[in-house]
Design a protein that fits this description.
single chain, globular, 17% strand, 10 strands, 5-stranded parallel β-sheet, Rossmann fold, signal
């Protein structure tokens, strides 16, 4: 699996997607502010249009890294380091009293604010709602998410929680993307995936900034699937896993 979108972004910049209005991260001055204002105006107008880009975000190891006092299967089982180095940390308490420490991926607040402004944004996690809901309540204080999907919204098959983008409200298959760190999440719709590296408290992580640039470039595409297919080749990379996991799935 590729580490993340940053190397692919350089390839995308060669495509005729008019990236000139996308402001650079460190830009300053009147020209930068003008470009940023023009882009946000364009993005807001595009969001209002029917067929605007729908962005579906994973949570664990994509946006945050969480540790629990006692982990009662709140999340899908996968390797995670136990230690959490506090960088930008919050604490949440679940309805059963269980507490968790959550490290936000660098740039998360800015990233969420921007994607909520520019795209129809949802979250989709294989984690249990008892954990994910209070976390999202803390992250999404303005209630800007169009919807939240949890473990019960996944398709459970062979011990895995598969994410099905068909459940996302009013999402056009040509205009929906899933941002996720787990390859399993892309099995049902591999041509709609944006894979990112797993976040385990790296203070110098810049993945979300790269993802944002990719999303802005994709927003100009009538159909994101051919572009993402060329960028990541997920269908080819996941074919062995797909055959093994989905071969006996009646709805695969």
């Amino acid at each position: 699996m590729p580490r993340g979108p940053a190397p692919i972004l350089r390839r995308l910049l060669c495509l005729p997607l008019a990236p000139a209005v996308v402001p650079s991260r460190g830009g300053t001055g009147s020209a930068f502010r003008l470009a940023r204002g023009l882009w946000r105006g364009f993005a807001a107008e595009r969001k209002r249009e029917e067929g605007g880009l729908t962005v579906v975000l994973d949570i664990d190891e994509c946006l945050v890294h969480t540790t629990f006092e006692d982990d009662y299967n709140f999340r899908q089982k996968e390797y995670r380091p136990d230690a959490v180095k506090a960088i930008d940390q919050i604490e949440i308490t679940m309805s059963d009293g269980e507490r968790a420490r959550v490290n936000k991926r660098p740039g998360l607040d800015r990233f969420l604010k921007t994607v909520l402004e520019e795209f129809d944004t949802y979250t989709y996690t294989a984690a249990m709602e008892i954990y994910a809901r209070p976390l999202l309540d803390t992250l999404d204080t303005e209630k800007g998410l169009q919807g939240r999907y949890y473990r019960q919204d996944c398709r459970y098959h062979q011990g895995l929680y598969l994410k099905d983008l068909d459940i996302v409200d009013k999402a056009d298959p040509k205009r929906v993307v899933l941002v996720d760190n787990n390859p399993v999440s892309f099995l049902l719709q591999p041509d709609n995936g944006i894979p990112v590296s797993s976040f385990y408290d790296q203070a110098d992580d810049e993945e979300l900034e790269a993802v944002l640039q990719v999303l802005r470039l994709l927003s100009a595409e009538e159909d994101v699937r051919p572009v993402l297919r060329e960028m990541y080749h997920l269908r080819d990379q996941l074919r062995p896993l797909s055959k093994r996991v989905l071969r006996d799935s009646p709805s695969a």
